Amino acid sequence: xxxxxxxxxxxxxAGLLCLTGAIVATSVANAAGPVETSVFAVQGVDxxxxxxxAATAKDKALVEVQVKAFRQLAERLGTPExxxxxxxxxxxxxxxxxRSLSIEQESISPGRYQGKLTVRFLPDRIKSFYGxxxxxxxxxxxxxxxxxxxxxxxxxxxxWEDNPWRxxxxxxxxxxxxxxxxxxxGDLDDSEIISAQDVLSGDEVKLEAMRRRYDVRAxxxxxxxxxxxxxxxxxxxxxxxxxxxxxxxVYRDESGDLLASAQLATKRFHMVMVExxxxxxxxxxxxxxxxxxxxxxxxxxxxxxxxxxxxxILSTPGVVGLDVSSLAGDGAVVKLTVSGDLFTVQxxxxxxxxxxxQTGDAWVIQPI
Length: 368
Fold this sequence. Notes:
It is a single chain. By secondary structure, the protein is an alpha/beta fold. The radius of gyration is 23 Å and the shape is globular. It contains 12 helices and 15 strands. Strands 5, 6, 7, 8, 9 and 10 form a 6-stranded mixed β-sheet that branches. Helix 1 (7-19) packs across helix 2, helix 2 (54-77) runs antiparallel to helix 3 (80-86) and helix 6 (164-172) crosses helix 10.
């Protein structure tokens, strides 16, 4: 791919990005709040460039990262043919697709720039570019999930330690997919909020704290352990807005490598979730599934009880949205958007430990 640019053009490009606010410095280690899930963003793009001085190396890196991310986006959204075409494109033809850059991490030393960046592309330009090649790209995404990977080792359960199971989920890089899957940072804040023992005991207050920190619809707990033959046994069980998830299977890569086997399991899980979302979206578009919004009263005994009930509601299959209309010390009134017939939705609430019922003209949600 043609990536050679003269120094004046590099400086001009970098200057324009800075003037338009397209480069935003952030730090993964200190990140908090929702993880970016846009289909048109590529996170964690690594660059390592050397030149006569650090400034020149950084200028080149800011261009190189766009080219690298453009190819990675095509690998995710496009086809092998599109990826091959992109490899022959000139850098100058790729740069106009950029929307913005964020620096997640960087290290600057004499004559060298190392960084990890998030690259965002302009949605309309990407759709047009892909559409001209017969590839339809949609920005519609399913609900985001937070996965807590629990690894069963000889030393006990591991949540934040380095292990094949956690690494496999990180390597999945599904934050910007059709069904975003987010893996916690595992930073000091995470470890202070929840421990492996808290997860094992099902501490609802702490699980809700993690859900709120990452601003997701549901928190899923995924267990795995080595099977003794180079494979892993993966189990997952819980309710999500896309339906009930039940996994219990041994995955084994041909290489016999534990990490490769773990990655097989995570990819298979994600594939199932994406297929489920696409099926639901197709049925919705065809008018086979209707949506309905209800005004619902949710009584509770206090803030902790409210957090627990709200988390249960959000993770119930069929729940599309929950907006708080009013909130008091002992209850809330919410606008609840559901998909499907109400009887099925009510049965889903029962499976979540809640009951959705009508009394007079009012709807109520409360624990069973």
